[in-house]
Amino acid sequence: MRTLIMIAAAAENNALGKDNELLWHLPDDFKRFKQLTTGHKIIMGRKTYESFPKPLPNRTHIIITRDKDYFVSFEDVIVVHSLDEALALVKNEIAFIIGGGEIYKLAEKQSDKIELTRVHANFNDADTFFPEIDEDCWMMTKQEFHPTDERHKFSFTYITYERKNNSLKNL
Questions:
Q1: How far is residue 69's CA from residue 128's CA, in Å, rounded to a whole number?
Q2: What are the angstrom distances between the C-alpha of 160 and each of 6, 46, 133, 142, 143?
Q3: The DHFR domain covers which part of the protein (predicted)?
């Protein structure tokens, strides 16, 4: 059975980024992202993929784009043209949705879990946002607070949400 997990770092106002860049630098969150996603398939939009200097190691990248001519010449990078095409490539395994905002919105109803890093700040100039988490569909099952320190300008909380049993994924 497939497990689809949305993973993101989002501000209190659900801001994700601006101009295809993150709005913060949180080394411990990067470590957690790497730990959770390594060895799995990661699904993303084209802009998210292009925000990386190169493909992330030890992960198969599935890029969703409307551009039928889009091509990437790296191993472990697959280009598809819809979320359905991407999901067809992740049967019976764990896969992560890693952004951006439009891809999160498309994938939310298909997802089983959310691994959210809630950055305790607001960024009003952001241009990309994580969808609102519907408490009727999602239940918080775990949280871990991380205070500011010499390497982290903002405090944040790792929050795990799991889909409630009574909410249907394919509404």
A1: 25
A2: 10, 26, 12, 5, 6
A3: 3-163
Locate 61 and state its tokens.
């990248």
The CATH code belonging to domain 3-163 is 3.40.430.10
Three-point CA angle 138, 6, 134, nearest 5°: 25
96-to-67, 70, 90, 99, 121 alpha-carbon distances in Å: 22, 22, 10, 9, 25
- Amino acid 13: pLDDT: 98
- Cα dihedral 38/112/114/60 (nearest 10): 20
Residue with tokens 């519907």: 134
Q: What is the mean pLDDT of each run of 10 residues along the chain (171 residues)?
A: 96 96 96 98 97 94 97 92 97 95 96 98 96 95 98 98 72 45
**63 contacts 77 by C-beta, under 8 angstroms:** yes
Query: What is the predicted pLDDT for the residue at 168?
Result: 54
**142, 160 in Cβ contact below 8 A?**
yes
For residue 38 the two structure tokens come to 């390594």
Q: What is the CA radius of gyration of the chain?
A: 16
Is 111 in contact with 162 (CB distance < 8 Å)?
Answer: no
Tokens 């490539």 correspond to what residue?
A: 89
